[in-house]
Every structure is written in C-alpha cells, then in structure tokens.
Amino acid sequence: MQAFLQQVIFGIQLGSLYALIALGYTLVYGVLRLINFAHGDVFMVGAVVCYYACTRWLPFRNLEAYPDAALANVGLALGVLLLAMAVCAVLGMAIERFAYRPLRNGLQTVDAHFWGMVAALPVAIGAPLPGLPVRAVVWLALGVVFGFLLRPVVSRLARRTVRSSSRLNALITAIGVSFVLEYGGLLVFGADPNFVPTVVPERTFEIPGGIRVGTPQMAILCISLLLMAMLRWIVLHTRRGKAMRAIAFDIEAAKLMGINTDSVIAFTFALGGALAGAGGALVAALTHVKITPLFGLLPGIKAFVAAVLGGPGSIPGAVLGGLLMGLAEAFVAGSQFSAYRDAIAFCILIILLLARPTGLLGQPVTEKV
Amino acid sequence: MNSKRLTRVSGVALAIVACTLVGCKSVKSGATAKPSEIVVGEYASLTGTTATFGTSTHRGVQMAIDDANAAGGVNGVPLRLVTEDDASKPDVARTVVTRLITQDKVIAVLGEVASTRSMAAAPVCEQYKVPMITPSSTNPEVTRKGEYIFRVCFTDDFQAAVVAHFAADQGYKRAAIFKDIKNDYSVAFAANFAAELKKLGGQIVAEQVFQEGDTDFKAQLTSLKAANPDAVLVPGYYSEVGTIARQAREVGLTVPLLGGDGWDSPRLIPGAGGPGGALEGCFFSNHYFSTELKEKATQDFIAAFRKRYSTSPDALAALGYDAARLLVDAMKRCPKLDAKSLRDAIASTKDFPGVTGKITLDMNRNARKAALILQVKGDRFTVFRSYTPEQIGQ
Amino acid sequence: MIGWAVSRLVGVTVLLTALAFLSNALTESLETYYFLIIIQCGIAATLAVSLNLINGITGQFSIGHAGFYAVGAYVGAAWTMLWRPRLESTLPILSIGSPTGDILNLLIALALGSLAAALTGVVVGTPSLRLRGDYLAILTLGFGEVIRVVLLNIDAVGGARGLTGIPTLVSTGNLAFFWVALVLIAVTVLTRNLMRTTRGLTWLAVREDEMAADAMGVNTTRVKVTAFVIGSGFAGAAGVLYAHFFTGISPDIFGMDVSIMITTMVVLAGTGSVTGAIIAGIVLTALPEAFRFLKDYRMLIFSTTLIIIMLTRPQGILGHSELGFGSFFRLYRRLSGLRRTSSA
ipTM of this model? Predict the structure, then answer.
C-alpha cells in the first residue's frame, strides 16, 4: 500500500509536467489541426533559458555559503520561471509567424526580412569579430541588407507557390522547425550535458505511513496546477479565449464574424509556448536532469501522446491524458517491467485509440460530405 | 511510364552514375598523401551524446602527436593527425573510418571510447588490414573483431570483477543493480558484476533499468529501495548518474552507489548537486590514472596537459595520449612502415611506460593493467585503493 | 504470348547481367567510401519508394516506417546468423562461403525479412488504418517505438548491442551494388505495375477522396491495409540488405529519426511520385555526406532548406508527376523554345 501510494505521488508529479506540455499541443491542435512537432523543442529552450538564468544571468547565491539567501533565491527562481515563459512565448509566436503562417496564408514579401536574418546568422557567427555586441550589430545590419536583397526573390517565389493544405506538409514543416531548434541549440549550447545547480532549498518530508514527499515535487505540482487554472480562466472568460474557441469551432465562420484569426492564432502559440517554457524551467531547476539540445524530444513525444490520449483539442482532456501517462509510467517503471516503460505508454494509447478513436474527452466529429 | 521504359531509364541512369563516379575516382587518386609525412587517423565523438569523452580523448591524442613531431617525428618523418567526428553514432563511425582509410590513406586508426562505435568500425580496419588502437573501449568483444584491433585499457569483465571484489571486500553482500537498457556497456557490466559477486558469496537483491534520456528515475529507485540493498551498482554514463543519485537520495535510498569508468567526468559532481552532493562517498572503478598518483611520468603528463589546455586531464585524455604514443613507439620500432609490420610491432609491445601504467599487450591484443577504485570526496575523486589482475584472480 | 514472355525473359536477363557487370566494375574501380554512400543511397531510395506507396499513392499518414525496416533487418540477420547454422548440417546447400550458397541464403533472408515485415504490417495496419490523418500518424510512430523497445529487450538478438558480425552475403562476387539495385528496381517496377491494376486504382481513389471511394463500394480499410502491408514488406527487404551489407545492426540504428527522414524524403519528392521518391532518397543521403565539411552547420542548413521548400513548393519537387525520358525532352523543348522566344 505504501509503495502504491508512493508511486501514485511520483506519477502525479510526472503527469502534471506532461499535462503542461500536452496543453500546448492541444491548444494548437484545437485551432489549427496541426501537430506542432517543434513544441518539445520549445520545452527544451525553456530548460536552457533556466540553466543560463540560474548560472549566469541572475545573481543567485550559493545556498551552502549563504543559508539566509534562501528567500532571495526563491524570489529570483520565480523570476527565472517568468523569464523562461516569456522567452518561450515569443519563440512560439515567432515559429507561428515564420513557419506556419506562410504555409497557411502563402508566403509574403515581408518574410524576406526573416530569411535575410537567417542567412546573416552563419556569416555573423563565422566571421572573426571582437566581442558579442559587435557580432550582434553586424548580424542585424547584414540581416537587413540580406532582407532587402531577398525581397524580389521571395515575392517571385510567393507568386509561383501553389498553396496546399496537406497535413503532411504542415507536419514536415514542423519537423523542420524542430530540427532547426535542436541543431541551432547544438551550436549555441553545445552537446555536453549541463546541470542546473540547486538554487532553492530542497527538503523531503516523511508523512505518516512512510511516504516521502519532496518540496521540488510539491512545487512542480502546485505551479502546474496554478498555470492550468490560469489557462482555463483565459480560455473560458476572456475575449481572446472566446475567439480561440470560435476558431477551433469553425475558422472560416470566425473570420466572417470579424475575428482577426492570425492574431488569435499567434496568441495561442504564445500561450502554448509559455506553458512549455514553464515546464522546461521546472524540470531543469527542480529535477536536475541533464540538459542537452535533444532534451525535449522524449518528453515532447510523450506529452503529445498524452494530448492525443485525452482527445486533441480538449483542454481537460490534455490534463487527464498527462496524468494518466504519468501514472502509467510510474507504475510500469516501479514494477519488474521497467524495460518496457516507453512501449507501455504507446500501448495504452494504441488500445485506447482503437476503442475510442477521438481520445478520452475528444468530441466525436462526423465528417460532412 | 511502363516497366520496359523504366528498365531503360534505370539502365541509363546507372550508367551515368557509374561514369560520373569512375570519373571522380580518377581525379581523386591523383591527390594521395605525399610520402613526406605519415598520416594517422582518429575517429572520436566530438559531438553528440558522449561529446565530452571524444573531446577529452582527442586532446590527449593531439598532444601525443604534437609531442612526437616536436621530437622529430618517426625517424625524421613528421606525423599528421586527421580527426573525424562520428557524432556519437555507430553507423557514422563506420562511414568515417572507411573515409579515413580509403580517402586519407591513414596508416593506423585511433579510437573510439564507446565500445559500440569501436565494434562498428573495427571490421572496416580488419578488412583493409589497418591497425586500430582503441584508447578506452572496454567491451571484450572489440579486440575479438580481428588481428589488427588493439586496446590500451582494461576490459569490462575485468572492471566489473574489480567492482564486485570491491563490493565484497567492503561487506556489501546485498547489492542492487540499476542499468541503462539502451547502453550495451551498462548491460554487460551489470551481468559480469552479478556473476562475480555471486561467486564471492554476495547476492543481487533487485534489478531495475532506465533509458538514456529519461527524466525521472524515482519510480524505479523506490522499488530498489524496497529491497533494502547494501549498495547499488549504477553502471551508466556520468550524464545520468548525477541525476540518479539526487533522485535516489530524494526517495530515501541512502546507500553508496557504485560505478565504472563511465562516471569519470568533470561534470559528474555538478550533476549530483555540487561538492558534498548526492554522490559524496560513492565509489567507482577507473583506469589506472589519477591526478593524485605520484609516478613521475603521470605528473609530467598532467603538468604538460594543464599548461596546454588549462584544465586537468581525465583518464580518457591519458588513455588517448598513451594510445597515440604507443602507436608512435611501434612505428619507430618497425623496420618498414607497412600495415603488416606495424601490426606486428604493436602486438609485440612490452612494458611500454604509459602514463596509465605499464602497458604489455597480451596475445588477445588487450592490455593487462590494474584498476583504481576512486571515491567521490568534495569536488575531487580520491584514490581509495587499487586492484591488479592477479589480486582478483585473473 | 510466347513471344512476349521470351522478350521479357531476354530483357530481364540482359538487365541482370548488365547490373552484375556494373556492380563488379563499380566495386573494383570506386573508392570504398563512395561505394558505401552509393549503397546507402540505394537502400534509402528503396525505403522512400516503399513509404511512398503508403503515404504518397494511398494518401495515408505513416511516420513509423523504421520499425518495418528494423523487423526486416533483424529477421534477415537472424536467418543468416541464428537459424541457418542449425539447418546447415541437414541441408549442406545452405552453408555460406560458396557463391551459390550465398545467393541462396540471401534470397531466403530477403524472403523471410520482407515476409516478417509484411506480417508486422498486418498486425500494425489492421487496427490503426481504421483511423485517419494525425491519429494514424501518431499510432504508426508509436508502433515504430514499440518495435524498437521490444528488440532492445530480446536477448537472442543481442539487446542494446544488437547483432554484429553478420556475414556479408551481398558482397560475394562484388554483388553488393547488384543486389541493392535489383531490389530497388524490383520495388519500383512492382509499385508502378500495381498502380495500373484495379487495386492500384483503388489506392489512388482512396487518396483523392476516401469518402467517395467508400461510397463507390471500395472497401477502403482493406485497400489501405494492402498498401500498408506491401509497403512494409518492401521496407523489410531494404532492412535485409542493410544488415548484410553493413554487418552490424542495433536497435538505435532504427530510431525515430530514421522514420522521420524517410517521411521527409517522400514529402520532399512530391507525394505520389515514384521516381521523385528515388531521387529524394539518393539526394537526401548523398548531400549530407557531401557537406560533411560544414560540420555543425550541416544539419541546420538542411532543416532550414526543408522549411523553405515546404513553404515555396508544398507539392514537393516533382508533385504527382514522374520523371522519365519524356520529361527530359519536354524540358529540352521548353528550354529551346525559351531561347527562341528570347532571341526573337
């Protein structure tokens, strides 16, 4: 019984993380019917931001040397969380703007400036320049120049492009974005694993019955629940949220009703990105796993499975799916079949999808001819 | 397009490809290596999951080659090192080693750390009869790939036996195992350890697995804790061990953890929460190299390495250095520089004074060397004791 | 009828002989490094054609193809390394080393590997092809992972270490290129011919409009499963060749990244174009090798290019069209026409 309860606690903690990431998938899937394959890598960026903030950017103090700095550190840690969320929200919006929107609305001449910046990046990194500020200035200047050079090319391409609404295309674009984040991360961050040091005091309590609960677990659980509650409020009680639901229901009709679909979709990506960023920062700072550029791959896939499990497009479904995944994994990992941990996750999904093809809480859709 | 036309198309396409490639070849073969230098190949994981291993080894190898050149090369002929990155992937290792041998015409190949990669590349070296020396691949299978494959480190079965003897000597009769199912090194280590410990009267009370890339180990660790072991063997790589140790302490598993040379990295302690963290007092076996050893050769190497890279060398760097120096030494000893005589020269290496101990290659092309048991103390690995092959009856 | 059969037979014999000669010439004259890349290209092209049958021609959404590739490789290797030695004493013809024995064994391995992959295709496809679009995609991805985890846990095939030291049956008499080219041609011709049968037309019908096909009395699930099973079998054959040429296989060679790469080839080529799939398979294997000197930037440039192509040419490089002599002529005519108009 004690072991059972203990595994339940681990499962809920793991599940709440999966749920945080799964929410991002489900939000995007809801409005665009797109599997945002790069979402797991946004999660990775959140962890990387957390690493840099904890080791370089923010003045954290060593807890062993200064035990009384604990409170200040906790405050800073909340700052790290917000920073990671902000960075990832911006990243999510950027991905939407430059990879998915051209796919949806067609390439525009303005996009030339983005590709100009991309083209300038290797030049700026490769050139022998003194110091980071100079490099940044050179990059910006070159990017603008390249952007103007690319304008005619892009506008010509844009005219020739035949738009396609194929899901496979969208998926491959998403995979491309995911690769860009991973290999870009490899260049910036290096392949070596990095670890976030202990920045907030960690205690483990033994509650009656021999069950152990640690402060990191509780923090992960509380912050995730809080974020989920906030998300629920945004989706149900704000104008933006209402617009999101309208787009999810019928994007064409929403457009006709005067909803600026592009800006609402961008907002959706920002929300999803912020949740993933929070998840990344929480994992990096509180479970101390190694952070590498490929760090987001496995949690991303599992969270995606969780989203499908709950019924893509359904917010309570994503939370339920995440918790189920976490619990299933904890029980399998704690048993003698731990070698099959990853396989079990997929087996549950397969069985469930065959029994209920739209996921646990997904709305059955009747196709109209 | 019907199938006949398809046949025609493919025929013509094949012919075009063939002509182009034959054309390529005739251009390429003109640009072979000049006889005025000796080209040595190295393949290493400079990027990917075990990038630190590759980088460390490469530093040692590069230093040895540069030292040899500073001392006049091999009988006056300078050496040139060509290094290829295998991105920590076995199939890439195979491709780049083929490239080293056929494109760069290397006379010998140095590498790799991970046994899976060495085993992928060894058949290529064997096929072209190019000697390969692996600095630190410990899987016994590696040198069984053929007559041209050598190693300058001990093997996994020896290392696992050392850890088992150590566990028995410390009185850890009830051991648990937590291995990485994705990693062959880890699986084999665990199996050898279990066999040896049982021979010594101990028992394995629980066994659990994880996978590289997992973020949460608490569920498995809790079930290990339920078996109440005296010690837990975690034969993984440093990148996972620190996190495992932290989560073990979190679930209340406080017994010492044991490990092998995969732990040896400057990032091990940061991963476990810094000095005095979750790994404090834990033990792992390693190659006969430590900055604490007082032998003169060792200390000279450490000083030179620090001067060059402004960081302390780890065992992998030392083994890379030894592998390259042993190769140079064999080149000096061979009458004419062809593959066969170089192979024989390497095979006849006896009492070579390496910085990781004296190296004598046995008839199975393995080095018989002692192993150290290191203990994590503060921010350092201190030498706890050492085991020679004789001491554990091998 | 007899004349037709004779001309076919002669045609095939000429093709086989030419391939064998070419194979020998290539092995003798090429640097091994280039040869290795050609073999990799051939295997990748076979994989791309096999997935194209499922994703391009039938319009399904499978992204777990590496699983079937792995099953083929493992079963083929298991025949050569584990099962064959047991039968050798009773059936001496199965011993390897002689050209006949090698060819016979490779054919058996190819048959077993494709069959096993096709059977796995039945097991995976029958339940999952009831679903559509994204759900199917994630199910196939999941099955691919399950296959990998199961392989990781079977001790008989070496677990994480995999199988090493598989005899290189394909290299006997310098026939590696021959076998790879033969399998590629066979898979391509089979696909093309199948597409012109009634079954093939139902594949296209399902791709164009599944509901309409259903209404016209096409058993859509069955049609999709057939395509899926045949595609899986082809991938299995590619796996057998990989195992016997590269002599070492382990579960991590058949990971999710390989599945994703194959899917990318199919989409990049233009879903539905068989020749496009071949070209994409070759280009996506050879180009990263050619750009090895770019080191860390290599994959970054690759992925950026992928996005740009998807944005500017979403139908893929070739779209639904095929590349044959005709298209060269058309291109030539168009170019010469262009020149004429510009000079005028």
Answer: 0.82
